[in-house]
Amino acid sequence: MSTPARHDVYTHGHHESVLRSHRWRTAENSAAYLLPALQPGMSLLDVGCGPATVTVDLAARLAPGTVVGVDASAKVIGMAQETATAAGTDNVSFQVADAYALPFPEGSFDVVHAHQVLQHLTDPVAALREMRRVARPGGLVAVRDADYSGMTWYPPSAGLDEWQLLYHEVTQANRAEADAGRRLLSWVREAGFDPAGITPSAGVWCYATPEDRTWWAGLWADRSVASNFAAQAIEHGLADEVGLELLADAWREWGEQPDGWFAVLHGEVLARA
Fold first, then answer.
1. Which of 3, 48, 124, 271 might form a disulfide with 117, Cβ 3.0–4.6 angstroms?
2. Which pLDDT does position 14 carry in this prediction?
3. Does 159 score more than 90 pLDDT?
């Protein structure tokens, strides 16, 4: 029987407001659940590496082990190489690759890592099976994804409520899962990992200092009108430009609140291959 065609759409795209968020990420704030399991000399594959700030951090921890970052976008792979070059990291390489068909033999890596990737895929279980394939027997697959329904903020904002609802509608139209975080454990189990080798957990990003609040509100105000999320909302007939501008205004208004607080919940899983 033939495999059904997949038509994955990256909800966020690669607008500057999206990359601004990606470049903020480090191994410490985005992969803390994985760090205790790492040892120098390990090999690691970073699936969906983006501009590679996390990838480069992981490479520094694993040296002299080798790290490979892959992403579906050739443009982003170029940015990743620039990040590594600027950091002087020489044990990392990058290439364009499909998460469903990774160009590596079975058992190639000690660790296979994916951060904020599965939420954008129409078949996350298939991607997990592929990640398991390229991990060595007994190696680790590590996945972390946000859960949009689990995001919470203060003070209340009708505009941010509308943004959260629209985000879910856009991802549903893309056949992706915005609430991936809570589903990671079930997806990993469905992918065939031994339940005895699975360690689930959760992590949080919090934006509450004046600097963090302004930064988070500003990038989502920009995303609401200029990123692929905005374009897809219009394309799917879920919003118009006026409505998106109102969402951006709501983000800026929230960002100006001196008691503003925003938390992003993530699901996390470590699974033995």
1. 48
2. 75
3. yes
The tokens for 233 are 């909302």
Q: What average pLDDT does the structure give for the chain?
A: 95
The length of the chain, given as a count of residues:
273
Q: How many C-beta neighbours within 10 Å does residue 166 have?
A: 20
Residue 123 CA: distances (Å) to CA of 8, 99, 148, 212: 9, 10, 18, 33
Q: How far is CA 199 from the centre of its chain?
A: 19
Q: Report the share of the chain in percent with pLDDT over 90.
A: 91
Cβ–Cβ < 8 Å for 44, 58: yes
pLDDT digits (tens, 9 = 90+) for 231-243: 999 999 999 999 9
d(CA 16, CA 22): 10
Determine the residue type at 237.
G
pTM above 0.85, yes or no: yes
The CA distances from residue 209 to 25, 212, 261, in Å, are 17, 5, 8
pLDDT of 5 reads 53
Helix 210-226 vs helix 228-235: crossing angle, to nearest 10 = 40
Q: If we measure between CA atoms, which residue out of 16, 102, 113 comes closest to residue 57?
A: 113
CA-nearest of 22, 27, 50 to 37 is: 27
